[in-house]
Specification:
One of its GO terms (cellular component) is cytoplasm. One of its GO terms (molecular function) is aldehyde dehydrogenase (NAD+) activity. It holds the Pfam family NAD_binding_10. InterPro entries: NAD(P)-bd_dom, NAD(P)-bd_dom_sf, NAD(P)-dependent_oxidoreduct. Strand 10, helix 6 and strand 11 form a beta-alpha-beta unit. This protein has a single domain, classed as NAD(P)-binding Rossmann-like Domain (Rossmann fold, 3-Layer(aba) Sandwich), CATH 3.40.50. The chain is globular, with a radius of gyration of 19 Å. With about 260 residues, it is of the alpha/beta class. Helix content is about 30%, strand content about 20%. The strands form four sheets. The chain has a seven-stranded parallel β-sheet, with helices on both faces. A two-stranded antiparallel ribbon has the order 4-5. It has a two-stranded parallel sheet with strand order 8-13. It has eight helices and 13 strands.
Length: about 260
């Protein structure tokens, strides 16, 4: 009987930690990283090899060799940190990491990217996996460069672009409830559940999905006003009030890939 593959998850945050637990239940050998001592201890308690690793602007701290050595697949799920530090060179940090990925000859890298690589416009364009990234924002361009670096340097790469992540304890309506002057009422909603994203990742790891780029979206493309007013009612929250005197800008993220 062939032994289960060893999967490394670089960044066990809200998405990555849940993925680690799911993969462990499927009897994969799982390694996970975090900068949080509390999260590292939770990983250990669940039978996951835990590594404290930090990618700074010019150096990687921690036992990177122990984490990367003999991995079959590496999932990279670390936030770019560009909101807090717009000057951060995310693409450089990814290239720095990928040089070690090459040294340890990891066969497959799965990079959790973002749909922010696509521009919002008044004509509400649709973007699928064949669409060329066209973001003009600082953060969008840096994420595009990170994707390109990983695709160029990996033996094999899968780029997964989740829409806005939601789950049992996380939903944007909690921040929007009761607020007024919310922009873009007619733009479509682009959201995806954490379970849906992690199901895609599990299917990629298992070889059930084999595509270079995957868009992850699970919620209907209702317009923002309709969706958030309905969701507020479902949550028992005060509905947000949208501004109606300006043209909405947005985009529609679609996927051509069957994800289950």
């Amino acid at each position: 009987m062939q032994s289960k593959k060893t999967i490394g998850i670089l960044g066990c945050g809200w998405l990555g930690y849940d993925l680690a637990l799911k993969l462990k239940k499927q009897n994969y050998q799982v390694r996970g990283t975090s900068r949080s001592q509390e999260k590292l201890e939770k990983l250990r308690q669940n039978g996951i090899q835990a590594f404290e690793i930090d990618l700074t602007e010019d150096k990687i701290y921690g036992d990177l060799q122990g984490f990367l050595e003999h991995l079959d697949k590496l999932v990279i799920d670390i936030p770019p940190g560009l909101r807090k530090n717009p000057e951060s060179n995310f693409a450089y940090r990814m290239r720095m990491l990928m040089r070690f990925v090459q040294v340890y000859e990891i066969p497959h890298v799965i990079f959790i990217s973002s749909t922010s690589i696509f521009e919002d416009r008044e004509d509400i364009p649709s973007y699928d996996e064949h669409s060329i990234p066209n973001a003009t924002s600082n953060s969008g361009k840096k994420i595009i460069a990170a994707e390109e670096g990983i695709q160029k340097m990996a033996q094999k790469s899968t780029i997964i672009r989740p829409c806005g992540l939601i789950g049992e304890d996380r939903h944007p309506i909690k921040m929007l409830a009761g607020k007024s002057g919310i922009k873009n009422p007619d733009a479509p909603v682009n959201l995806v559940s954490r379970d849906h994203v992690n199901k895609i990742i599990q299917n990629v790891i298992a070889g059930k999905i084999d595509a270079p780029v995957i868009h992850a979206i699970s919620e209907p493309h209702a317009n923002r006003k309709v969706y958030y007013q309905k969701t507020a009612e479902e949550f028992g929250l005060e509905a947000p009030i949208f501004e109606q005197d300006k043209t909405s800008v947005g985009k529609k993220i679609v996927s051509m890939i069957k994800s289950s």
